Amino acid sequence: MPAGSQLPQILDDWFASRGWSPRRHQRDMLAAARAGNHALLVAPTGAGKTLAGFLPSLAELIEAPTDRLHTLYISPLKALAVDVQRNLLTPIAEMGLPIRVETRTGDTPSDRKARQRARPPEILLTTPESLSLLLSYPDSLMLFEQLSTVVIDEVHAFATGKRGDLLSLCLARLQTIAPNFRRVALSATVADPDGYRAWLAPYGDIDSVTLVQGDKGADPDIAILLPEGRVPWSGHSGMYAIPQVMAEIETHRTTIVFCNTRGLAELIFQQLWKENRLGLPIGVHHGSLSLEARRRAEAAMADGRLRALVATASLDLGVDWGNVDCVIQMGAPKGSSRLLQRIGRANHRLDEPSEAVLVPGNRMEYLEARAALDAVEAGELDTDNFRPGGLDVLAQHVMACACAAPFAGPELLQEIRAALPYSALTEETFDRVLNFIADGGYALRAYDRFKRLTQGPDGLWRVSHPQFVAQHRLNAGIIVESPMLEVRFKNGRRLGKVEEAFGTSLSPGDTFFFAGVALEVERVELTDLIVRATSKTARIPSYMGARLAITSGLAHRVREFLHDREQWKRFPDDVREWLEVQDQRSALPAPDQLLVETFPHEGRHHMIAYSFEGWNAHQSLGMLITRRMEALGLKPIGFVANDYALAVYGLEKIEDPAALFSPDILEHEFVEWVQQSALLKRAFREVAIIGGLVERQVPGKKKTGRQVTFSTDLIYDVLRKYEPDHLLLRAAWADARARMTDVGRLARLLDTAADTMLHVDLDRVSPLAVPVLIMIGRENVAQGLTEDAMLMEAEQIAQEAMRLD
Question: For the whole model, what pTM was predicted?
Answer without folding.
Answer: 0.79
